[in-house]
Amino acid sequence: MNPDRRQFLRDTGKLLVLSASASIAWEAIAAGRPETAPNYKMSDHWWGMVIDVEACIGCGNCVRACKDENDVPRSPKYFRTWVERYRVLPDDMEHPVVDSPNGGYDGFPEKEAADPNAKHFFVPKLCNHCAHSPCVQVCPVGATFESPDGVVLVDKTYCLGCRYCVQACPYGCRFIDPRTQTADKCTLCYHRITKGLTTACCETCPTGARQLGDLKDPKDPIHAFLREHHVQVLKPQMATGAKVYYNGLDGSVR
Amino acid sequence: MSGWQDKAHLVRMAVLFAAGVVFFIAFRAWMVPADFGVYGHYRAGALDDVRARPVRYAGRAACEDCHADVVAARQGSRHARIGCEACHGPLVAHVQAGGDKKPALPDSRVLCPRCHYASPWKPKTFPQVVVAEHSPEGPCIACHKPHAPKMS
Predict the structure, then answer these.
(1) A201 Cα to chain B: minimum distance (Å)
(2) Dist. CA A170–CA A24, nearest whole Å
(3) For B41, which of A116, A142, A152, A153 could close a Cys bridge (C-beta 3.0–4.6 Å)?
(4) A101 shares contact with chain B (CB less than 8 Å)
(5) Chain A touched by B48 (CB under 8 Å)
């Protein structure tokens, strides 16, 4: 009689513990907190991006998708990603003619004829998700940080709106959100990539000019791309540890 | 005992100092969230805050779960690798509604030239047309099927 009761208590205890842990895991998934759920481990990822300048056609899909997905203010002052249009005379690399009407949100309506002596190309820009980020170094309150999986993020509840980071970013990737008066920037669609989706800009890029890559995943095609192409990061002299790699980047791009 | 009385002022100082330390520890524990510093000099919960944003673009895998006919139509075409939502827009509401909330079809006169109007800024190998010469009027989809645009 006694052993039976003991066995019963033991089995009931196991059942309770198992169902409790299962429900905790499920709650974490349902609440959109994959790190506390078992299926996404930050330590298994190190995110970066490849941008193929030679494939960009300046359609502006990435700019529109980014504003849609992340609820970025529609005003032409605020962008998490934008596309620049370059015209460079081969003998004057120091002075490229660059413009970016509405960040490329409306595409690039033709404004002037081609200059047969110049070269023309588009350059998409976004946060470079630096591994040694100047914007993180200057934040006085710990409101911006490099996440363990290599994404530079902003804690909106901690940000004072002091604008140090906006000035510190060598790539001009930050702005102050006029609605909250806090710093805002590309999150590399952190809410998407932690669920196994790609970023909104990569999802909608029609030519594959932008590709999200997980540098810690040996099977990710980003490794083959980096091996087979001559890539460059923006402003390598700043030693920011930028993780957005450009293929076919012209020396005139700043 | 008289020696102890001489040190009374030191005891008062020590008590005051200890009270200050206790106040600092308590105030700091009250002000700084428990998850500050788990991964670095920031609040670990901020990662969850950023993650909590709702997704709007469902991703092409979600589209292809249902639209096998379009997958077949795009097979081998020059548009095969383009994400569905690049043209059709963000469609997570359509997926969550189980196929209801159908999106409006895009206007081909607006959509197609976004990529295919001729411009010296584009890569030379990319197919581009001067729209006014190529097709002054009428929808592009009268001739080109958007999922497999090459005309045979």
Answers:
(1) 9
(2) 43
(3) A142
(4) no
(5) yes
Q: Tell whether ipTM is more than 0.90.
A: no
B47 and B81 inside one domain: no
Number of domains in chain B: 2
Q: How far is the alpha carbon of B98 from chain A, nearest alpha carbon, in Å?
A: 19
Alpha helices in chain A (DSSP H): 2-30, 61-70, 134-138, 164-168, 190-193, 200-204, 222-228
- Decide if A203 and B50 are in contact by the 8 Å CB cutoff: no
Residue pLDDT, tens place only, A122-180: 999 999 999 999 999 999 999 999 999 999 999 999 999 999 999 999 999 999 999 99
Mean local confidence (pLDDT), A189-196: 95
Using an 8 Å CB-CB cutoff, list chain B residues near A110. 117, 119
Distance from CA of A75 to the nearest CA of B (A): 20
Instruction: Give me the sheet containing A119-126, strands edge to edge.
Output: A97-99, A81-88, A119-126
- Residue ranges of A 203-222 with Cβ closer than 8 A to chain B: 203-208
Instruction: Encode pLDDT of A65-96 as tens digits.
Output: 999 999 999 999 999 999 999 999 988 889 99
Q: Does B85 touch chain A (CB under 8 A)?
A: yes
Average pLDDT along chain A: 90
State residue A226's pLDDT score: 96
Q: Does B38 touch chain A (CB under 8 A)?
A: no
Tell me the mean pLDDT in the region B99-104: 90
- The boundaries of the domain holding residue B130 are 60-142
CA atoms within 13 A on the CB side of B24: 6
CB pairs under 8 A between A and B: 127
- B106/B129 same-domain check: yes
Q: Cβ of A124: how many Cβ atoms within 10 Å?
A: 24
Answer yes or no: do B73 and B13 share one domain.
no
Residues B71 and B115 in one domain: yes
Which chain B positions have a beta carbon within 8 Å of A183's beta carbon? none
Report how far residue A127's alpha carbon sits from residue A168's, in angstroms, rounded to the nearest whole number: 13
Domain map (residue ranges) of chain A: 1-30, 43-131+186-247
Has domain A43-131+186-247 been given CATH number 3.30.70.20? yes
What integer is the mean pLDDT of A227-234?
96
Q: Are residues B64 and B111 in the same domain?
A: yes
pLDDT at res. A36: 46
Q: What Rg, from alpha-carbon coordinates, does chain B have?
A: 33
Looking at residue B31, what is its pLDDT? Answer: 93
- Would you call B42 and A144 a contact, using CB atoms and an 8 Å cutoff? yes
pLDDT of A29 strictly over 60: no
